[in-house]
């Protein structure tokens, strides 16, 4: 049988409106699969072996979800092929064999390629992508401050999940607070990023780090810092007058005292998560709310 031209297959594909029929069409062959990709805007990757065929044929892809290890070559192919990408969901699946799987995952080069090429990024999730299977850090995916330097130049990114990426330091937060990202970032998850300190919080808000984030990321609404034990009451004070922050989670941040909470005078905050094992004795009353002037804030203990 004579091979059909790609243009003919794409034309046929455009006339198929039933989703199940379209799936059946894509399963005929790799050529048919490529023809369906021109209409694809969402991709959930369960088998990475087909990405070499799918990505170059998917210029309209907006969202990709992948919980498997991805090598740099696939990240760079994604950057080259899918310029309209807005959602990058790369939370890594649990229970991989570290010596086999993590060494084949992407590093700074792959992540920076996507961040630099995909100017429409709005949401990035990298949970568990930095993982230590052994004590050998050389076998980990090295998502570091250099990765965040590239992400910091994103102009539309609203949500960023870096839970457990514990090679990130205050310098990485400075990139957030001084790059274009500061104008769009709304949700930031830094749970278990144990190298982040008050200095980093100031970048997100004042001078250089968490303080810079507090002063510069003026659209930030939600900030998770559970397990960032180097953070103290200075971070609370940095965010006290933030114009949009409504949710601040500080569970397991034990170096914050109740006196520092009381003196922070939050003007907008509606939810505050605190460690029940604070540096100083807890108040006698089990507070569920705190009034800071006209602002009432709900307190959760964890």
UniProtKB/TrEMBL annotation:
Biological-process GO terms, alphabetical: SCF-dependent proteasomal ubiquitin-dependent protein catabolic process
Entries under InterPro entries matching the protein: FBXL15_LRR, Leu-rich_rpt, Leu-rich_rpt_Cys-con_subtyp, LRR_dom_sf
Gene3D superfamilies the record matches: Ribonuclease Inhibitor
The organism's place on the tree of life at top rank: Eukaryota
A Pfam entry, by short name: LRR_6
GO CC terms of this entry: SCF ubiquitin ligase complex
F-box/LRR-repeat protein 15-like leucin rich repeat domain mapped to chain residues: 125-203
Name used for this protein in its record: Leucine-rich repeat, cysteine-containing subtype
Organism: Artemisia annua
């Amino acid at each position: 049988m004579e091979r059909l031209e790609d243009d003919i297959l794409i034309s046929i594909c455009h006339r198929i409106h039933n989703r199940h029929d379209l799936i059946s069409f894509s399963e005929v062959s790799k050529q048919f699969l490529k023809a369906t990709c021109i209409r694809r805007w969402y991709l959930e990757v369960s088998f990475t072996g087909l990405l070499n065929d799918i990505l170059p044929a998917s210029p309209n892809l907006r969202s990709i979800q992948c919980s498997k290890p991805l090598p740099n070559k696939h990240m760079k192919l994604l950057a080259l092929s899918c310029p309209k990408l807005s959602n990058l969901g790369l939370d890594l699946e649990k229970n991989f064999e570290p010596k086999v799987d993590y060494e084949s995952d992407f590093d700074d080069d792959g992540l920076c390629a996507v961040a630099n090429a995909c100017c429409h990024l709005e949401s990035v999730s990298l949970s568990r992508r930095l993982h230590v299977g052994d004590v050998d850090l050389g076998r980990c995916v090295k998502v570091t401050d250099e990765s965040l330097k590239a992400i910091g130049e994103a102009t539309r990114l609203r949500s960023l999940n870096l839970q457990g990426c514990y090679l990130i330091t205050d310098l990485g937060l400075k990139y957030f607070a001084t790059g274009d990202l500061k104008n769009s970032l709304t949700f930031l998850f830094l749970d278990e990023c144990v190298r982040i300190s008050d200095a980093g919080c100031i970048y997100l808000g004042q001078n250089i780090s968490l303080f810079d984030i507090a002063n510069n990321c003026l659209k930030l609404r939600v900030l998770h810092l559970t397990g960032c034990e180097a953070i103290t009451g200075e971070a609370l004070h940095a965010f006290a007058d933030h114009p949009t922050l409504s949710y601040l989670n500080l569970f397991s941040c034990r170096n914050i005292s109740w006196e520092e909470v009381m003196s922070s005078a939050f003007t907008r905050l509606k939810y505050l998560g605190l460690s029940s094992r604070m540096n100083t004795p807890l108040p006698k009353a089990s507070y569920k709310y705190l009034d800071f002037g006209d602002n009432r804030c709900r307190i959760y203990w964890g």
